[in-house]
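Renewal narrative, Specific Aim 1. Our central claim is that a sequence can be written position by position from structural information alone. The example that follows is taken directly from our test logs and has not been curated for this report. It begins with the structure tokens describing the chain, in the order in which they were read.
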């Protein structure tokens, strides 16, 4: 029997630049790891990835993007067994990263059953709070969409 794959999304919401743009991170409640991350969630059956990204952003923060951009980055990891800290070798999760551009820097509304804190961070600050290398690379890809490297002449 082959490995099955589940689809998830990771969304980094970014405020418009006043002096500098900032990314919204949420902190998961301690029973769910207690770490900071972007907005994540599962893709529902027959749902497009971008639709899932907008839905999860709205469900988890009550924010709506003015524009959603794919970061061109995804990664796969072992799925956790329900109610377990062990990963299942046959169940895989593929997570696709998106950048959500917001029209204003607005306080999100979070569900205390999932997250216990939120904050806005500069790119450099956000990098220090993220736990997983794939989340860090996803944020790097999103930053590159906002502030592309200058091309040599």
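The sequence written for that structure reads:
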């Amino acid at each position: 029997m082959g490995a099955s794959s589940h689809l998830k999304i990771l969304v980094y919401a970014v405020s418009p630049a006043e002096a500098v743009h900032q990314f919204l991170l949420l902190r998961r409640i301690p029973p769910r790891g207690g770490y900071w991350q972007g907005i994540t969630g599962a893709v529902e059956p027959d749902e497009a990835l971008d639709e899932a990204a907008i839905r999860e952003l709205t469900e988890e923060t009550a924010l709506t993007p003015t524009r959603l951009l794919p970061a061109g980055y995804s990664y796969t990891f072992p799925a956790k067994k329900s109610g377990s800290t062990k990963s299942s070798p046959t169940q895989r999760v593929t997570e696709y990263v998106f950048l959500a551009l917001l029209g204003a820097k607005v306080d999100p509304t979070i569900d205390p059953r999932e997250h216990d804190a939120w904050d806005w961070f500069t790119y450099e600050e956000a990098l220090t709070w993220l736990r997983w290398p794939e989340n860090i690379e996803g944020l790097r890809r999103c930053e590159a969409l906002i502030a592309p490297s200058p091309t040599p002449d």
